[in-house]
Structure formats: structure tokens, C-alpha cells
Amino acid sequence: MSTQKIPQATAKRLPIYYRYLKILNDAGKERVSSTELSDAVKVDSATIRRDFSYFGALGKRGYGYDVENLMKFFSKTLNQDHLTSVALIGVGNLGHALLNYNFHQNNNTRISAAFDVKEEIVGTIYSGIPVYQMDEMMEQIPLQQIEIAILTVPAQVAQDTVNKLVEAGVKGIMNFTPVRITVPKNVRVQNVDLTNELQTLIYFLDNYAGEEVSEEE
Amino acid sequence: MSTQKIPQATAKRLPIYYRYLKILNDAGKERVSSTELSDAVKVDSATIRRDFSYFGALGKRGYGYDVENLMKFFSKTLNQDHLTSVALIGVGNLGHALLNYNFHQNNNTRISAAFDVKEEIVGTIYSGIPVYQMDEMMEQIPLQQIEIAILTVPAQVAQDTVNKLVEAGVKGIMNFTPVRITVPKNVRVQNVDLTNELQTLIYFLDNYAGEEVSEEE
DNA sequence: TTAATGCTGTGAACATAAGCACAAGATTTG
DNA sequence: CAAATCTTGTGCTTATGTTCACAGCATTAA
């Protein structure tokens, strides 16, 4: 495709860079070096330079990087120049919080439809977002050109729901359930398992006490 | 310490294994092979065997693994035999959802104190958890023997809050803010950046269309 | 204009992780 | 009891990611 062969590890850091560049740009800063960036985003400066280099020579030797240019470049790279619509599946405890969560603020993304089984909320508008019946996914998802779903349903129905989502044409799923779901290989899953994360943190504390700084999602 | 040198990648998978073993055990299953596990947790069977092997020979050739034993072993390894108390810092939109989130269900962990600046909620009980003033961290955290904090405060105050948490003795932070916080090296940070996660997912869809299955937090 | 300085971009070393493939041993079957 | 079958545990290969260290060039200072 367009930009081939960007390592996954690099891709995962792009939003971090982008966010900080926006902050710098808003503050009126014109140039920045990999060392300065490194401090702010906690990524080794060599790693930053290597990451950037996959996209070509974005900086100038002896000078650094032009904040505005770089920011705009990443904006394009991360598709921030067009609004992405996302569906929320399951308006429970966590789902409800995500409806209110301001993805839009620094991310050209909006939850444009929510789906749930609970009759009493179907048909209503939650935080400005309409709640549909589960069965309506098949219709609404293609209609609203949604390719991404945030999954916050109970574990027991996770796989079934995913099957329907895939059938409706969803291409990416942010999976908040603890289930490791099965999808066709053209569908991308990003697991966000909070319980897991917490358990891992506890494990590290107890077993790697005082050893390193740390990382990632 | 106790079990030395478990690779990070392995450590991050332990809760996944543990969760599934509990399910198998509850279902009355007595033995399981790495291939079966592989199907359920979406981790290559060789990787599973390697992961387990760091803890010694847990299985039997020609048989597989004893579900109950293995489950109990991981329970101990993941400290599930004692309750871990956690503090929630920032009872906003997301924080509130996390108070209700059932960490306890399959994870011997409980949010035992919440902290916020909003006068109107300080002193009240939210979902059974008392909300304290921010200043009370210094007192409550050691008192309640809390070592882990979930950080859901606004980005602008993230670093300041972290500094106080560290001073109060916190050793692990689950960071929901987009800020890459600075901590002493004996403190562990687990970043959970939802905006980031979503942006990365979008990036992968647009640039790696139909290429692989996927992964992680 | 020339010298000093700064910072990128990258070859190469190192580190971590994943997975193949199979010997070794246990179990099950006949 | 012997043969057939199964599944672990691991040496080794390959893949992916990180970091060092520096040549090369642009910028800045004199």
C-alpha cells in the first residue's frame, strides 16, 4: 500500500508523537530535536529518529524537526484529516463512560452509533448518540459507513456479537472484553483488557520490584 | 527475587492463561493440552509451552497439563491468594465507570479508596467506595496499605498527582491519562491510552489492510 | 568566510520474542 | 505386554525491536 513496512512497534508510537507535536505547535514552538521529544514521550531518542526515518527524511541535520510540518505530516499519516465514525456495542457501565469520553478532542473520531439489548434505552439518545437495537447493526453499520467498533458487551456474548459485527462489515474492533475473540484475518482486533492490565501490574510489582521503568498498552 | 527472569512478554500473558484455566476448571475439565489452550487464548502452542516452562515442568508428556493444578499454580503466581487494595484517583467520567467495573470478579483486587477534588462528592460513598479529598492521599494510602493507583485525572494535573502518589508510597500506576508521566525507577507504570489505542487501530486499518491477525494492550 | 557546533539518519551490535521441529517420555490401545 | 499415539520441553532459527555510535551535513557563531 501507501507507506509500506512500518514496524508495528513504530505504528503504536505514532499517536504519542502526534499528540505531543500538537501540544508543541499550540505552544508556538517551531523546532524540536529528537532529544527533547524523547524527554516528553519517554522513548529513546534513537528510537524516535529511527521511527521517523521510516517515513523519509523529515528532519534537518544540525537543526532538528520543524514542529508544524511534522505535526501536519503525522496528522495526515494518522488520518486525522477526515472524521472516523465508530460504533459502540454495549452501553453498560464502561460503555456509557466511553460515550462521554472525549475521543473527539484530540482525535478526529466520533462514536456515531451505540447498540444495546436493553429495551429501556434503545431508541433514546445518550450523550448525543442514538442507541439502536442489536439487530439494527446489520443495517446501521453499512449505512453510517462505520468500520470500527468498540466492544463492551458481557463476555458470554462477545464472540456472537463479533460475528455479527464482522458480517455487518466492521474491519477493526477495540475489544474491552476479556475474551480472545476469533475474527477473519482481514479484521483487526485491539485488545484492551483492564483486569489483565491490573493483574500484570501487580505481578510486576511483586516480582520485578525496582528494576526498570515501563511501558505499554 | 522468587521466580527470576520471566520475560515481560510472558508475564503479560499470564493473566490470560489464568482466566481461561479458571473457566476450564469451573467447567470440570481435568486436563488440557497446549494446543487446546492455544485455540482459546490465541497464542501459539509453542509459545504457551515455552511460557509455562519458565516456571518449571508443569505438564506431563503425552498427557498435557492438569487444569486444577495449573490454575492453582498461576493463582499463587499472580498473587490471587491475597486481596490487593487499589486507589482510584479522579472520579470523573471514566473513573466512575471503573468504580463500578468488576475488577473483583475474576481478580482478587478491590478499589478501596477514591480521591477527587470535587467538593460535592468528597465525603460521600460511591458504589460502596469512600471518596476522599486529594490531600488525604498522604494519609490514607499508607494507612490502607495501598500500593497501586488507577489514574484518571485530567492531563494537566497528571504529573503533579503522580508526584504526590509516589510520595505517598504508591509503587504501581495504571495511567489512563495520555501524558507520559515521569516516575522514580522503582515505580511501575502501565499506560492505558484509549485515544492512542483507537488511533493505532485506525492507522492499521488504513495501512495494513488485510494482513494479519493482531494483538495487544 | 571559516571554524565550531548541533542533530539527523543509519550501519551494526545487541536484546527480546516467536515459532519450527523433534527427541524423550508418558499414556493409551489392542 | 508391546505397539501406537500423544504431548511436553527445548535447541535452534528466524523475526522483530532497541540502542550505540558516528559520518555527514546544516546551522550558527566568530
From TrEMBL, chains A, B:
Residues 16-55 bind DNA. GO terms for molecular function: DNA binding; DNA-binding transcription factor activity. NAD(+) binds at G90, V91, G92, N93, L94, G95. InterPro entries: CoA-bd (IPR003781), NAD(P)-bd_dom_sf (IPR036291), Rex_bacilli-type (IPR058203), Rex_DNA-bd_C_dom (IPR009718), Tscrpt_rep_Rex (IPR022876), WH-like_DNA-bd_sf (IPR036388), WH_DNA-bd_sf (IPR036390). GO terms for cellular component: cytoplasm. Signal peptide: none annotated. Keywords: Cytoplasm, DNA-binding, NAD, Repressor, Transcription, Transcription regulation. Residues 79-180 form the CoA-binding domain. It is found in: Cytoplasm. GO terms for biological process: negative regulation of DNA-templated transcription; response to redox state. Gene3D superfamilies: NAD(P)-binding Rossmann-like Domain (3.40.50.720), Winged helix-like DNA-binding domain superfamily/Winged helix DNA-binding domain (1.10.10.10). Homodimer. This is Redox-sensing transcriptional repressor Rex. It comes from Isobaculum melis.
